[in-house]
Design brief:
By secondary structure, the protein is an alpha+beta fold. It is about 50% helix and about 15% strand.
């Protein structure tokens, strides 16, 4: 089993199963069938079990609860590891695990946790919006350079979230050495998301400048493209929304999500209106990520605002 399958397929299925189990345990108790869910979690055990041991990863609410209950069940059974050989022990383990999940999902604390996490998400968005508005409030003409970074088609199945975050870190260190960005970029906004139809990672950057100073951006696009290629060892691909190529002719459908977006504020406000814990097949958020990695962030680059 490759990590590519774990992060794009198995994590998705686990989140969906957990949310459906939660809905039944909390709101649809009349149709809750523990035997059915025992079979579901037992059949998919080989798929979701690896996620329980990636200590360098962090997850959103659903898988985090699963990890906690998994290790608590190991502790209760005085096990260090759940063997694949003892079938009866595995069945008992799944039954105890599901009961722990049921108790967590039906508790008052769980609803409060959802509210707290939603508020924390909204707070981060408000902070970025306020920062952007404060920095740009006296600028009446802005030039926003919008770049979308991904990978060559044959490289997509080979790139893990660990690779992506490493490439992003290298890329951001390199571009901050650019005189244009170091001295002139008012605000840098970055968002990482998945294109679920392709199991593809995309990193969008919005770099905001004073258009009275920076009028032409062709050279900057070329520089950013080169830096992304360097950071990805030649495997990266950059597309920009300001190209002369019509949107409808593009092969990469993910660009359509940003077609009408003018700046970072519009994307942030769009995220504020979306359901934070959406686990559907069309969800674009990162289901797994290295610890402390931020799916979106914004910051001022330079010390002077002109």
């Amino acid at each position: 089993m490759s990590f590519y399958e774990v992060e794009h397929q198995h994590a998705t299925r686990l989140e969906q199963n957990l949310q459906e189990f939660y809905q039944q345990a909390r709101f649809q108790k009349s149709i809750l069938n523990m035997q059915h869910w025992h079979g579901v979690f037992l059949d998919t055990l080989p798929d979701w079990k690896p996620l329980m041991f990636y200590q360098e990863l962090e997850f959103d609410l659903w898988i985090t609860i699963q990890v906690y209950c998994y290790h608590a069940t190991l502790n209760d059974l005085k096990l260090v590891y759940l063997s694949n050989e003892d079938v009866e022990q595995i069945k008992l383990f799944i039954a105890l695990l599901l009961e722990k999940l049921r108790l967590v999902f039906t508790g008052v604390n769980f609803l409060e946790t959802i509210k707290a996490n939603n508020e924390e998400h909204a707070k981060r968005i408000r902070k970025c919006v306020k920062q952007y508005e404060e920095i740009t409030k006296h600028h009446h003409r802005l030039n926003t350079v919008k770049c979308y970074f991904t990978y060559q088609a044959d490289q997509i199945p080979l790139v893990s979230i660990f690779d992506l975050t490493k490439h992003i870190s290298t890329f951001e260190k390199r571009i901050q050495k650019s005189a244009l960005i170091q001295s002139g970029c008012l605000y840098l906004y970055r968002k990482v998301f998945r294109v679920p139809e392709k199991n593809q990672y995309v990193c969008a950057y919005f770099l905001t400048f004073n258009s009275n100073v920076l009028k032409q951006t062709e050279m900057l696009y070329q520089q950013l493209n080169q830096e992304w290629l360097m950071a990805t060892y030649g495997n990266g691909l950059m597309l920009d929304s300001n190209s002369d190529l019509p949107w409808e002719e593009r092969d990469d459908g993910f660009l359509a999500m940003f077609e009408e977006m003018e700046d970072a504020c519009e994307d942030l406000e769009g995220m504020a209106q979306q359901e934070f814990y959406n686990v559907g097949d069309k969800a674009t958020r990162l289901r797994v990520r290295p610890r402390k990695f931020q799916q979106f962030m914004g910051r001022s680059i330079k010390g002077f605002n002109f």
